[in-house]
Batch of 3 targets.
Target 1
Amino acid sequence: MKKTAVSLLCCALICTAPVSASAAAPDSYSENAVLSTSVPQDHLIRFRVTGNVEFKLDGKTGSEFRVERQSEPLLEIIPKTGEKITSVTVNGEDMTDKLENNSYRFPPVYEDKEIIVEVKTENTAEPNSSPKTGAIGGTTLAAAALLGAVVFAKKRKTEN
Amino acid sequence: MKKIVAALSSLAVAAAASVTAFAAAPRDVTRIDRSTDPQSADTVLSAEIDPAYILTIPKDVKVEFNALKTDFGTAELSQARLAKGKCVQLRVTADNKMENQTDSSKNLPYRISGETDGSSAEDISVTVCEFTKTGDKLGMFINITQEDWNKAYSGEYSDTVTFEIRYTGSQLGGSIIGSGTGGSDGNG
């Protein structure tokens, strides 16, 4: 009982210790806020093609690739025999003139890309064996002969 | 022994008990009686009211990838009781670049712009803003150019913005945004 009384008194002593509290507001105060963002690791490069073409990106074949952001992959477009590339667009921008030997080195990639390739079938026939060419040649000879005949006839008429 | 301890404890409690002492200062008094002329006296009543205000400031913000302008939040003065000629001054301090968390050599530049009803500033980290009356507010935005986004390497980026608030004399004559920021005054 006495021990309890002593303990309670000690507690009371601690609780009644005076506390100084300053009510004055500080003249300045600072607080922080954190700004953050995430930049993606990679981007998607996807191909659409009208024709028979194979794609390679950094040597790997496929039609869809994930590439590391800010990397500069090499694109190779390999048309099948008899096909010719007529147009290449990257996200709507015409890049046909930038192809070298059907290859294109991307600048650092910072977004997804859609590449549209158009090809057409090339005419591989021999020029001399073309029947159309032969017909054109025959027509030219006939026209020349006709022209010669007309000139000759006019000349004779003038002499008479 | 226990009795002694208990007695000492009681004494300690008594000694530690806070004592409020009113040291009544002598007052100047004016006595008026039948012989006093004039038969009146003046008394000056005075009171001092401490300034008080609440200024809310933006919290943490996550900027979406490729976002050119992100709402950072609004700094707004409410419940303001300020002395004449005084204001609540806000100074925004930032590095103006978010640092890549895995490679500190890589960063993403940004600017914090400010907009009020009548004016705007392209970069509020180079000026001070003053709030003088209840309802004064400043909208803040994080601006990142597309060119800077395009150059950014992958990863997590962050930066800490510090808002320093002071109760001080007003210097801007009622404008919220200070000059020297390249901002425009929308009032024409």
Note: The mean pLDDT of chain A is 77.
Target 2
Amino acid sequence: MVTIQFVPYTEIENLSGLGRIRKLLNIAKTNKIVLLQGRLRKEEETELIKTTMEEIDKKFKGIELAVINPSQTAKDEIQKFKYGFLNMFFGDTQGMTIIGPSSIVKSIKKDPNKIELLTKGR
Amino acid sequence: MLNKIKQFFKGFLTMWGPRQNFKLGLYGPPNSGKTTLANKICIDWLGEEMGKVSPVPHETREVNIKEKVTIKAKDGRELIFNLVDTPGIATKIDYEDFMKTGMPATKAKKRAREATKGVIESIKWLDEVDTVLVVLDGTQDPYSQVNVTIIGNLAARNIPVLIVANKADLKKYKVKKVQSAFPQYEVLGISAKYGKNIDKLYEKLFELAK
């Protein structure tokens, strides 16, 4: 059985960068797939990878990560403007982040039109 | 904030011409051909290789630096830089994956430990590099989050980037897929192994260094 835990942006909004990473990684380390409303900041994404590497051990082998940013999937200039405008007000609450422990999630394939989450057979 | 101050001073110092002695970083996921490209650059301009390459991922597990690489343009201009070859950035490392290549468990565990440290080093070096070639494997899915994160991070730091779609010599190679994944960036297709388009890459380095 695969457990997906939804994390609304409000739960991480007031946390520090390190606090956000800690919270999300702690959930992933309990073998749950994290579905975060919104996105981490670019530097936080890199910090998440760095912290993940620091914590790899016998049990925890890392994560699979995918970020959906609506402004990057915009099909035309109007959509780009619209999402750019929304970003000014709602910032990182736009989009979605998926973090899955690599013990469960084999890979996340992402292209502009679909996301495929491949889990490992148990 | 510290990055912005650094960028300001870099910009100030380079107002009167191309940068000299800047740090050119090679970044990308494991096995994209960063060290193969570093070797090609070093053989072409220094006459010696930089590092060992292998089909097993995470062969480069430490940041390697080759100082004062001087390349020359057809019109006589010179560009001097320190070449920084970084370990591939990954979000997961499992020693069992190395064992699948026939590696003994002890060696695989050691390699995995070193590989995790290598990724951390690569990320730390993002603060040090001035210009980056993001080396992607043109036969693989370009939409991987590691690629997006590296490129997004460099953009946030205002570091000039050229995406290099490597392995143009292979059948599965699709440069257009890389271009469509990163439409806001210039993508140059090359084969580091056979030197395809390497002269174009050297020309681009002069543009990036401005």
Note: Chain B has a mean pLDDT of 91.
Target 3
Amino acid sequence: MASWPAQTKYISHPTTRIDAVPKVTGKAHYSSDIQADGWLYGMILRSKWPAAKISGINLDKARQVPGIQAAVKVRDGEFTVRFYGEELAAVAGTSKQACLDALRAIEVKAEPLPFVVLEDDARKSDAPKVWDGSSNVSPGRPREKGAVDQAFSECAAVIEGFYTTPVQIHHPMETHGNTVSWTDDGLTAWSSTQGISSVRDSFAGALQLDQSKVRVLTDFMGGGFGAKFSAGVEGVLAARLSREAKAPVRLMLTRFDQGLAVGNRPSSFQKIKMGALADGTLHAYDGENYGTAGIGAGGDSGGGGGGADIPMPYLYTVANSRVKQSAVAVNAGSSRAFRAPGHPPASYGMECAMDDLAVKLGMDPVEFRLKNDPNEIRRRELTIGADRFGWKEKYRPPGTSPGPVKVGVGCAGAAWPAGGPNRRTQGEAQINPDGSVEFRLGVQDIGTGTKTVIAVVAAEMLGLKPEQIGVKVGDTRFPPGPGSGGSTTCSSVSPTVYDICAKALEQLQAQSGIADARGENWFAACKKLGVTPLTVSGQWQPGLSSSPAYGVQFAEVAVDTETGLVTVRKVVAVHDCGLIIDTLTLESQINGGVIMGMGYALYEERVMDDLSGVLLNPNFETYKLPGIADVPEIQIVLLNMPERGVIGIGEPATVTTAGAIANAVANAIGARVPGLPITPAKILNALGRAPAPLST
Amino acid sequence: MKAFEYATARSTDGARQLLSDNGAYLAGGNDLLGLLKEYLVSADILVNIKSLPGLNQIERGDKFWTIGALVTVAELEHDAELANAFPGLHDAAAEIASPQIRNVASVGGNLAQHSRCWYFRHRDTVCLKKGGDLCYARHGENRYHSLFTGNDCISPVVSSLATTFAALDATAVVLRNGAETRLGMNALYQKAWTEATAHNSLAPADLILRVEIPTARPRSAYMQVSDKHTFDWALVSCAAAADVVDGKLKQPRVALGSISPVPHQVEAANDFLDGKTLDDDVASQAADQILKGAQPLEHNAYKIPMARALIRRTLLKLKG
């Protein structure tokens, strides 16, 4: 079986991204930068009703707006819209302003319907039905292990908590969208996607085209986080506009659009009762959770449904457990897979319960976890992390830090069991007589450094430098690769490149007669190819990658108990991902995961208005994301485990941050803030400082 | 946004003429362009006032300083003498938005900016402030809204310069109907207290020319709390200013932002503080007076303890 080299020059060392210079100089053209010949702007008209029966859409006046070259409806006839922002029609024109004017000229006949946008309202028996004839609340699948009720009576300590997480919106810096050119010859889409193959197939399916007639290109794209696997309504509309206008149409969503209809992480409302025996062994767990995936989970997502269910109980072994979960439909945009679907809310809820129970037991929270965590790697990470963080010196009983600005510490753990490599990943390389080489893989680099990973592995195997490796990805004409979801790209691509290189060296040896074509022999061997380049195909091979990954994070916070302001001072992130390929892009992933987890902990929240049914924060003014001044010192501790092969890190890196911060806040102030995001308002409320509101 | 004409004014008279019936003055444009893009206001013509002579100066005087309306927030932030004379004003300027915005934001524009209420700013809600018949925030998501109001709208003033100017007892000089009118911060925002659709007392053709700040209060301070550490609106802001003679406050003033449609000031509290030696107890008593009568709604009661802490801390900063 194949195995990675024991001594490495590039693998497990830091390599600067091979595309760092074009990225920071603006030479890299992202999907939203594409300017195809004769391109038009495209824009979407969205429902301003949270629920309505649409009986007619008239595009005549829109077509008359100067500059408008095409206008299409999402569908003909009568239909129902079920959330504010659902797509109704689209226009293409020579300027943004022409499109904006045209959208305002479209006439829509609509009969507003009753709606409900908040989870707790939707659960009421008399709530308007999001879907005719079916309950807003899914029946759920209760499951029970052991004898839970009796087990609680045997516990030395029992806690009950209600831990909630909000709907988190996918807000990649580059919004969803494509430039689409659809002619008689076929369809070309420059897509901002994390899955060029799934986008190709969804275009072909939606427009009834041969898959061979659709080409999807993604050279640089600005993030997806699980929401960008499909052509989407916006892609199909762009294609139809292109067909009608006989010109390429660039339809990138506005930031306003982005908040409405292209994905989010479901909310969770977790009622957790948990008990432990006197020796600290977890013994009984009763968890009930409901959350909303909007009108339904998984709308148009090729990357997993992103449903409202979460793994419960998370991570730790409990002999007796009962779990009941349900999804609550509301009139709001559909959820999609979002970076480690289900795990950040699960980690947050369980880890809060763990700390609350440790406090009640009078046990150190790290010791309590070590006792109940069945996973050897994570126990090791807990121990290493506690040492690096200085847990023993820093931990003090909740609320006992002196002064109005209280310091606290917390930790939380992760597991990312999903995925595993895509075993059908393929690729090719063309090796030229002058020694230059180009690798082509039908994957995409979603910002995680996939191109660099390819260069690092190839350089290692061929004895060249990473900058000597040409890398092309993001084209459905290349040998097929996986969608970038489930933290699987690195573990799919690395063994594939390994295989291509192994085969290339074999063939070079055969053709050149040089026993070892690597390194200093490379150019001499290539020269022997004469005038014909060598092309080599390879595919994923077993033995070089695996799953899952774990991870533990520690957080230190300072909470101003008079103003409620939370400052995260430090996060220590201890992570494993098997054999490390590039330490720099790996650390970058973890930094990003921590910062995103911090946004989830302290700032991010979709705010729906129950009276009007609209999204109140469709912008970065009030949908708050961490800025650099909010970001703490992040100390990364990596466990390099070459014997496990390559494992992805994208998702586990963000799972634990919110739980760790929430526990640090509770430790600081001596009170549990019930629910994310932990805002100053919620801190002051949890401390009992805010008076009761006047009745209105 | 709707199409508009664009013209550059070279004199204040010219600006007024160019404005015609449905125009808007354009300086930094941070607020105006957002309003235009969301179709919240419309204008047939934007009159660029950035070339008006004499309005971009900070003039230092013995009795008062004059800040031209076109002085940028960044210039306020980076003027070392100003930071020495009015430390509270420096601190307020430095907290506004982001460096990029501060580089173009003008003092006049900061004072004249409209409501940030997310119902008002939403393209598909017609709230009281937009001429509708309902304040959605009153019964809805009011975490960012006022504790005090004189009408049914609870959208607060968010200009942190206004809060600070109020504490410094500064006066805005406004060109109105061809004549200069002097408006204190109370007067500048008074209309928003009584009328839901107003966010200040300025008529469309009124033009803020400058702000005059008396030097009578050499000690000043400004603090705010936001959800985030930078580039975020204040949940509550507080400014205080006074002279301190023999350890005693002289002519003290305290003003708060983001809790009322006007910079929130309580003259009785200012009177109470006058002549007092600052300590925690005095500051707390002042806070009680300033926040008396607050009307918390479902989601903004936290602003009361937050404001109390800010009043105390800001006042104590005056001790130096």
Note: Residues 303-317 of chain B form the longest helix (15 residues).
